[in-house]
Design brief:
It is a single chain. The protein has 303 residues and is of the alpha/beta class. It folds into two domains: 10-174, 3-Layer(aba) Sandwich (Rossmann fold); 192-302, K homology (KH) domain (GMP Synthetase, Chain A, domain 3, 2-Layer Sandwich). It has helices at residues 24-32, 75-86, 106-118, 134-147, 164-174, 192-207, 241-248, 253-270, 290-295, and strands at 10-18, 50-56, 59-65, 93-99, 122-127, 152-155, 217-225, 230-238, 274-282. The strands form two sheets. Strands 2-3-1-4-5-6 form a six-stranded mixed β-sheet, sandwiched between helices. The longest helix has 18 residues, at 253-270. The protein is globular.
Length: 303
């Protein structure tokens, strides 16, 4: 680790920014070749800055996956935006992802202004090209080329993997020669407990109604390794009693489904049989409570 490789080995840090739902986590999971980041069609799914590591013969890229940049409405939202803004400093490249299937608006202009201030080389990934025509794509390329002097503009589909090899090629070309920052088999800097909690939260996002997703958090309370399986106990935190009822469901049916789906992903992560025990707890207005946010692992000293 940290030893300089043979000449030509490139390495560095790339922060991935964009509006909510731009497809950042989908792209990184594809590049990693496994599921590390949770995915959902709900905005602001990613809440933390997470490092994802891609290592090849030609080099090592340390990606920083950031929360989608948006106008915050609570302390958690403020934290998420600070995480995204801070990631623009002290990196080698900014990878700016845009959802080409959505009209350009003030949100994209806000992100572009942040990138301009950072003065870091920026690659534009125009995502979801599988959803638009070639003519629409050509117009978007032309439009964005006039807004910022990008190092490169690469159309991709994070979902299908279209042109992602070209994106990696462009990123590696923009990195300096450098050391191996992480062991070759490491794909993230996050502990297993964090990833397990995120996998559970993903299933809640997928299975519940619109009024629940932003109001939930998951805390893995206990992990006990036994001879034949791993026992995991986790708490799903909500803000209102009505949300608790939705997550539990009639006769506990919804909670059972969430647990069953999450267990499959956790078993794939750990490579072991898992017994998953889920509890639901009401913590009113937790997104605005500093003590609760700290307990969940958010570093509030940054703002």
């Amino acid at each position: 680790m940290n030893s300089t490789r043979e000449k030509g080995f490139r390495s560095g840090f790339v922060t991935v920014v964009g509006r909510p739902n731009a497809g950042k986590s989908t792209l990184l999971n594809h590049l990693l070749g496994q599921k590390v980041l949770i995915m959902s069609d709900k905005p602001q799914t990613t809440r933390n800055r997470i490092q994802c590591i891609v290592t090849e013969e030609r080099g090592q890229i340390v990606f920083l996956d950031t929360p989608g940049i948006h106008k915050p409405k609570h302390k958690l939202g403020e934290y998420m935006v600070v995480e995204a803004k801070e990631s623009l400093g002290d990196v080698d490249i900014i990878l700016y992802m845009v959802d080409t299937s959505v009209e350009f608006g003030s949100g994209e202009e806000f992100v572009l202004e942040m990138i301009r201030k950072a003065k870091t080389p920026c690659i534009l990934a125009l995502n979801k090209v599988d959803l638009i025509s070639k003519e629409q794509l050509a117009k978007q390329v032309q439009k964005y080329a006039q807004l910022l002097d990008f190092s490169a503009i690469v159309p991709v589909s994070a979902l299908t993997g279209e042109n992602t090899d070209e994106l990696l090629k462009v990123i590696f070309a923009g990195l300096p020669e450098g050391p191996l920052y992480y062991p070759e088999d490491e794909v993230t800097d996050q502990p297993e407990r964090f990833i397990m909690a995120e996998l559970i939260r993903e299933k809640v996002l997928q299975m519940t109604r619109d009024e629940v997703p932003h109001s939930i958090a998951v805390l893995v309370e206990e992990v006990e390794e036994k001879k034949t399986l791993v026992k995991v106990r986790a708490t799903i935190m909500v803000e209102r009693d009505s949300q608790k009822g939705i997550i539990i469901g009639q006769g506990g049916s919804m909670l059972k489904t969430i647990g069953r789906l999450a267990r499959v992903d956790i078993e794939a992560l750990l490579g072991s049989q898992v017994f998953l025990e889920l509890w639901v707890k009401v913590k009113k207005d937790w997104r605005n409570r500093s003590d609760t946010l700290r307990h969940l692992g958010y570093d509030l000293r940054k703002y």
